[in-house]
Each structure stands twice: as structure tokens, then as C-alpha cells.
Amino acid sequence: MRAMRHFLHVYRNGAYVWGGQILMPKWAAGTVQIAAADIVSVLNRRTPHETRAFTNTDLTDIAEWLIEDGFAPDDPGHSVTVLAQSGVLGSRDYQADIGQSGDHLRSLAETGLDFTAVGETLLLMPDDWSASVGLITDADLPDGLSVEEDGTAMATRWVVYGDDTSGVVGSAGGVHPYYGLIERSVQDTSIKDQASADAAAQSRLDASLPVPVYVDSSEVTLSPDTGVDIARLVPGWCVDVATTATCRNLTQRMKITGLGVSADGSGEQVKIQFGPVGASTSGGN
Question: From edge to edge, which strands make up the β-sheet containing 79-82?
Fold first, then answer.
């Protein structure tokens, strides 16, 4: 077993549930620890291999090109599944050997697109993709959970601007009747035209208004009787969450943003983090 050379594949009850590149194996007396990341980690260490410009193109098609171009010279084995087009048109310009392909993909995911990995398959979906894989209630989390509003991630107006050459500045939102004015500004040098800048600003606004709400069960585990297929609890999918266990009651569809599974002699533990639909799940973990 060697770092960056081999992949780890995980099966649960005979079903394939996860696979990824081994990054940092650690050997000690009587133990071996393996740190691995999903197939996006390969793109984190690839660059664009040709210069390519896109004009008024759905972000999903741009993402698919980035993925195929990144893997083309040396493909470890991958596939791409488009669950639905993003519905956001944009113009992007990529230069051969400039930047990491994974970073370019994550940049797209901040402007109306989302993606995740299931084994060797990369899934592309709209930011607001909300297919549910089940219902989780307080009874499924007998040790409790926490509900958190993240005001630091909120904005009522977003500004997205390109590089000095393009000079484009896009904005969306303004003074909110309840929250007032909370403004955020960010640069995205891959954006080259006004329509793309406006779309990027609107996408960021949709993800940050109203205040994003997160449910965290990272300190507790799901009940064994939970009516959810564990193998389908993949970041990017959604679940319906209903909780009245805290002072912040909540009943809504939420996106899985994190998942931890562990097993020892006492049994299996499954811990999940949920975010609002539109929350990013990408990253390669």
C-alpha cells in the first residue's frame, strides 16, 4: 500500500459505499491508519490541459469538460452522471496549465452548481437539487442534536466581480425588509462577462438568504431503527428533518453536508451534518 498509488474501497454488508485515493497511510506497532479522499482529490492535483473558452454555457457542461479534461491524460477510472442541468448560463475562460482543475470545479460550485462523488462516479446537480432519501426525526436521534443559524454566512446583497481586464461587476439583492442590508463582495477571476457575474451573485444570494440553518448530529449517532438506507446517505443528497427537541423547531428538507461512520466491538455509529438546500457539499473528502 503506497500513498497516491493505490485506492481504498469500502463495502458495507456487501454493498459498495465509498472509494478514494490513499493520501497518508500511517504505520505503527500493531496498527495501520489510512487517510484517503474521494476521486475529486485526483482533480485537486491536475491542471487544465488545453486552453478553452465558454460563452453562455450551462455550468454543468463547463464542469463536465473540466472533469474530462482533468482525467484525460491519465484516467484512474471514472464516470460522470448529470442528475440535472444547473440552469445557470455562464462564460468562463481557462488557460492550459493555469490553476488546479479541482479548484476550478469548486469555483463553479459557488455559482449555481453542486457536485459530489460516489465511488468512481462524479455526480453533477443544480445547487438546489433536493431529492430526498428519507425522513429523520427526533426519535432517530435519541441522544439529541443541535440546530444552528449561521448569521456569518448570510447576506442580503452579493457582489461578484471579475478581474481587472474584464471589469465586470455583478450584483443581486439589496435592503431586506426584515434583516436590513448585509453586503458581501467576492472576486472570481474566471468570470468574463456581465451575465455570468450577475448569475454568480444571484446564486450566492440564494444560498445565503434567509439565514442558513444547520442541524448537527456529529456528537450522537442515528438510531439503528432509522428508516434510511445508510448506503444512500451521501453528501449532496437530501433528507427531510423534523425536530422539536430544541427551542428552535424545524421541519424542512435539508442537504447532507457531512457524514461520519465508525464501527468497533460495540457496534456501528452513523453521524450526520445537514445544511440548507443550496449548501455546498463539494471538496473531495
Answer: 79-82, 121-126, 113-118
What is the rounded average pLDDT of the residues 78-98? 92
pLDDT above 60 for 169: yes
The pLDDT of 177-181, averaged and rounded, is 95
Domains in the chain (CATH in brackets) are 7-37 (no CATH), 41-126 (3.55.50.10), 132-150+212-276 (2.40.30), 153-208 (3.30.1920)
Tell me the pLDDT tens digit for each residue of 230-274: 777 788 788 888 888 888 888 888 888 888 888 777 777 888 888
Mean pLDDT (the chain) is: 87
The verdict on whether omega for the bond into residue 212 sits within 30 degrees of 0, i.e. cis, is no
